[in-house]
Amino acid sequence: MYIRATGNISPQKTFGHSALAEAPVAYTGNRLACIEPDYKEFIDPKLIRRMSRIIRMGVAAAMECLKEADIKMPDAITTGTAYGCLEDTNLFLGRMVEFNEELLTPTAFIQSTHNTIGAQIGLMLQCNNYNNAYVHRAFSFENALLDAVMLLREKEAAHVLVGAIDEIVNPSFTILNRFGIYKPGDVSNLELYKANTKGTIAGEGASFFALTAEPSGNDYAKLEGLHTFYKPAGLAATEKQISGFLQRHAVSMQDIDLVITGRNGDAAHDEPYAQLTQSLFGQTQQLNFKHLCGEYPTASAFGFWLAARILKTGNIPELLQASAAKPVKRVLLYNSYKGSHHSLSLLAAC
Amino acid sequence: MNEPVFIAGTGVISAIGNNVTECLDALENGRAGIGPMTRLDSVHKNRLPVAEVKLSNEELASRTGLPAIKSRTALLSLAAAQEAIRHSGIEDLAAWRCGFISANSVGGMDKTENFFREFIADNNKGQLHDVVDHECGSVTELVADALGINEHVSTISTACSSSANSIFLGARLIRNNILDVVIAGGTDSLTRFTLNGFNTLMILDEQFCQPFDENRRGLNLGEGAGYVVLVSEKVAATMKHKPEIVLSGYCNANDAYHQTASSPDGTGSYLAMSGALKKSGLQPSDIDYINLHGTGTQNNDIAEGTAIKRLFEPTYPKMSSTKTFTGHTLGASGGIEAVFSVLALQHGVIFPNLRLQTPMKDLPFRVTTELEKGVSLKHVLSNSFGFGGNCSSLIFSKI
Amino acid sequence: MSDLKSQIIAQLNLQDVKPEDIGDDQPLFVEGLGLDSIDALELIVLLQQQYQIKLSNSDEGPNVFRTVRTMAEYIKAHQAQNS
Q1: Which CATH superfamily is domain B6-237 in?
Q2: Which pLDDT score, from 0 to 100, does residue A17 have?
Q3: How distant is the alpha carbon of residue B173 from its chain centre?
Q4: Pairwise CB contact (< 8 Å): C48 & A103
Q5: With a cut of 70, which residues of chain B have pLDDT below it?
Q6: How many angstroms away from the CA of C21 is the closest CA of chain B?
Q7: Given an 8 Å threshold on Cβ–Cβ distance, is C49 in contact with A49?
Q8: ipTM at complex level
Q9: Predicted local confidence at residue C37, as pLDDT
Q10: Do A19 and A153 belong together in one domain?
Q11: From B160, B209, B251, B391, the catalytic residue
Q12: Which of chain A's residues have a Cβ under 8 Å away from the Cβ of B42?
């Protein structure tokens, strides 16, 4: 399976496929927002008027990805989102409460369903093919990806558009903040891992991928393996899951040039990563990505994009402010979310 | 990739019954579950009938073991999933690679909308335990955790086709040798959010709905949950009573016409049904009964009917919409109707499409209006279509 | 009618459309402004919110919302009734 193309809207300058030769965008505060493109190029103005921000971001990232892949009609579209279209949900819910269930309009409601982004992409492409939406918290992206992998394996599809989209809006940020998820005060995203305090920073993003069964000669990377595990009993169980995954794909840690981890700056959350550095990951270069995109349930899609980008050139882009110990031929992406949702992706250079 | 996937168990809770036996009894005796709103606290209470599950959250909690403060969507889900597992007779789920795949449309919205009443006035107010399970996936996890399933947990939300897609996915995970046993289906409880949403679309019937009637006025919302236990051939071989029904076909297609409206010729429905037939290797004439999506809206029924005409003309299978009993249970409908389709096969019955007065003039076929018993059924098609053009069809077959 | 046009633009979030772009007798739906069934529902709420007029049944929609002029006439007729 091959990653032929990507489209990524994030709090970094990732859209439009610049060389990522610039330093990362620095933020102060506990909330990163996406840098949005001018949507006119991607979305018909007749359709855009009903689209909230997350839908615009998702559709634009998908269109950019398809353009790069030179695919007009994907054989399937699978999307993942944990929170769905929060802006529309909040709008409808807020008005419903405020106006006591009177004088409500349908637009926010119909756009609030979790399959809206996949559906809007299908509508724009006039694509009658398979279309599915996964909404399982921090497995949403991985489940959408697994569906795509199975469709390719089943030969039901030759190429699949896979994406993950989540947004952060004021009411949800306020609520999540009350749960104590985010660091208080002015935290610098570039110093995220140094604080060693409780909490992370909020983020969002729209990342799409064209996954194909056959190589094109110009792909980003090969997807060699994908695995999720839920609520492991402890570090030993996590280690067992990771070793088992590597074993099933007949690789050892020596075969992996880079581990991209889902550290998010929350001391308790990151502790298992530190322990893994003492054991499994000890001899391998590690890089983090959540200082770039913030923490959100489908942030692993940003990590997946980063892995693919790195494997295309074999070099680590300036964005990460690090240099590779050796040419990067194989990457293990390991993400964990709230200690309960763990995912592993194994990607290799083509 | 084409080995049979068996239905080893079913579980359901809906307005017509709290379990499979009660629902079957209501279906066979023409007892609809639609009535005045009693649980949902809405200003539309006296105007819009709904199909409520008769048990309170406290009663559901004591039956399932989940705390009563949890989302009703999770409580309904657990009740039906527990029944499905019990009914399957699988003694030790832990002996197999077991997954729980559920679907819902708005997660723990029933709790979130309470939270918002206080939160809107003051952002520091509102009980956080009311939003902790807001996410669709969180509702699934409450149930998976209670069932002790952690090998694979997934949630699908494609509006009203959601749980047909979760059954579809479950079968594929078995065929891809990723899982051996999957409890798959969906759940939704009535919420003010969805009630008002459908109300703004002006597609809610103020009377009891009349799907496939010339003078249909819209749909009634319902609530409930339905799950099937899917097992691989290997698992089936170990069972005392080898399952006799398989999921033989499935297809997911997109209408790509409009965010909410179906295309006049029912393109998506046609593609879903014909795709499921192709997957199962069956001909249209092999289908004995169609459990219709049949919501009762002008738009759905003519689109679905037109697609059926195109695919089945000139010989039509028996057809009915069991939403005339349960209302439209949204994310649960595909799961509940999958259970009803299996029941039709197991018991050789065709459930009636209640309250039909005037058949639709533009359609050449008639839906079944009286219970038919002692029918020899081999293949049943179940349709589930939703917002966003998502159309899915499943075929259940007796072997 | 200019006020009504502005209200329509705001209610439907018609981007880059100015009131003067909408002709009094220009069809609003399909071939004209390209509105659809969801917009019709939005316009029903607009009548309720701005003019306290409740469309008694949604079948009236296509005639009432044919053009800005038909809408304005409907509003005028019903405001007269209300007062």
Answers
A1: Thiolase/Chalcone synthase (3.40.47.10)
A2: 67
A3: 20
A4: yes
A5: none
A6: 26
A7: no
A8: 0.97
A9: 87
A10: yes
A11: B160
A12: 101
